[in-house]
Structure prediction request, 403 residues.
Amino acid sequence: MERLAIDGGTPVRDGVLGYGRQDVSEGDIQAVVDTLRSDFLTCGPATERFESAIKDAVGAGYVTAVANGTAALHVACLAAGVGPGDEVVVSPVTFAASANCVLYCGGTPVFADIDPLTWNVSPESIREKVTGRTKAVVAVDFGGVPVDHDAIRAVCDEFGLAFIEDAAHAVGTSRAGRPVGSIADLTCFSFHPVKTVTTGEGGAVCTNDPGLAARVALFAKHGITRDRSLMRESDEGGWHYEQLELGYNYRISDIEAALGASQMARLPEFTRRRQEIVAHYNKEFAGIPEVSFQKDESPEETTRHLYCLRFDLEALGTTRRFVYDALRAEGIGVNVHYLPVYRLPYYADLGYDPACCPEANRYYEEAVTLPLHCRMSDSDAEDVVRAVRKVVKACRTRKEAAL
Prediction:
């Protein structure tokens, strides 16, 4: 048997292949340089181009680009009217921002459990968590695989809730031919460097509702407007503006937006490459009984941000920590996404039950995130498969020897 690197054997690869990495071309760089040489570094034409590119790609009627994905979620909740005393049902297996945005508004996050196969929030669990205080739902497209929009919409319509889609992972994804960004009441994107499209830091809120769009733009820009249709006083002149809400400075710069507009033009390229790697992983891992991957009913419509494997640790006679450390030793820069938000110390201090979502806990305890990004070669992807096979085989052998 091939000796594991963690035990002193030769690793599958010499350097570490990270789980995520930006893909910035010379054209992207030139777009930023051109903006640096222009008259506008913020609040200029590059931001307008970026918003238009997102609008065209996702089919949304209105798009507001903001400083980051967390800002997008915050202003989406504010636009939806979330405030003190309100509850918002949220996904538990996600980055903390998906729930933090509710706390920022003075509301209370309520965690619904995940589906055991798709790892997205379960519509049935959402329904169970709705109370008379529920104001909205924040549903995360985990890994880029879309949530069950129709089922979540049905719950939201039944109880009069706002449907906020945290699509930080899902730019480029569609469901039944409808692009993510054009389906929920409010859809939030992130453009962090590990995401499919990057601006360095950046985010966006998309909606088809003009009233929500106006509120998003207002909250993202200090609560200040020059839009005469919104002003309460008579127009005193071209300089006149009014503050209508206590908003925030969540504007994106034209430097970031220039990179984003250039990257959006490459979205079909990014989607194609990520789908190729995911298809290769799925094919190879389907033959390993001790692992399972995320269910996606329409992979041809999905642009994946993350690729996670669940390991049957009982069958392998090992721990997730050993699998993680062994793969890292082989040169595969695995990660874990995510510790359920309610298990974070801050949320534990707020009184959240660490056992409130059993399926989310089971997922977390078995999951490891593998590398997936557009800079990966076919050889890189095969190295990942080789390393997983090597670790699984070693665990099998150790378990058999212990019997």
About this structure: Residues 378-402 form the longest helix (25 residues).
